[in-house]
Each structure stands twice: as structure tokens, then as C-alpha cells.
Amino acid sequence: VFALIVFACLVGEGYSNLPSSPQLFCIFNHNEDACRYGIGIGVLAFLACIFFFMVDIYFPQISNTTDRKYLVLADLGFSGLWTFLWFIGFCFLTNQWAWTQAKDVYIGADSARAAITFSFFSIFSWVSEAV
């Protein structure tokens, strides 16, 4: 759910333009990579959650213990990796938001703060998956 919120905040109001120009820019210090990173890990985390949810549903029907072991290790490894990537995303978005000038943000400040907040919450939700 947190990944979906981060993705939605950045897609919905993560890009803005100046009143004098139709050119869109990322509200995180005009750094397109910040928006792309948040959107990218949000989408991939959401898709991975769907995949691992489906694996959990069919897990009791998998009779091969080797396959079960690899699925559990894949879930554990992915959760650990995604914890790290969410931490990097939180630090990156926070840093870029700190350097953003107030005159550049007309709309979307609340969405930017929500993306930062829920990327922080995502760290703990992925840690809980890895433990």
C-alpha cells in the first residue's frame, strides 16, 4: 500500500510547471531522477507484492521442498534488497526536497511530503517482511 501511495503522489502531483512555461519539471529540486526513482521503486515494489502474495496463496500446494526453500529465500532476499532501496529513496527524496526552493513549488508540496513520509514507512514494512 505504501508503494502505491508513493507512486500515486509522484505521478499525480510530482511534476509541475512554471506559470510562464508549459514545460513540466520534477518538484524535487527540478531533478528528474528523484521522481523517476520514486516512481520506479514504487511500481516495482507493488508488482513484487502482488507476485509474492500469489506465491503465498499457492505455497501449500508446492510439494517440492527445494522449490519452497528457493521461494522463501527469494522473498527474504527481495525484502532485504527492497528495504535498502527504500532507504536510498527516502534519503534521495529528502535531500532533493531540502534543496527545493519554495518559489518553484506552486502545487504538489503536500504530495512531495507524502511521498517522502510513505517511503520512510516503507522501510519498516519491508524490514518486517525480511525478519
Automatic annotation (TrEMBL):
Main localization category: membrane
Top-level taxon: Eukaryota
Gene Ontology cellular-component terms listed: neuromuscular junction; synaptic vesicle membrane
Family: Belongs to the synaptogyrin family.
Signal peptide: 1-16
Alphabetic keyword roster: Membrane, Signal, Transmembrane, Transmembrane helix
PROSITE patterns for the chain: MARVEL (PS51225)
InterPro entries xrefs: Marvel (IPR008253), Synaptogyrin (IPR016579)
TM helices/strands, residue ranges: 38-59, 71-99, 105-127
Membrane disposition: Multi-pass membrane protein
Entry's localization field: Membrane
Residues of the MARVEL domain: 1-131
Protein name per its UniProtKB record: SNG2 protein
Pfam families: MARVEL (PF01284)
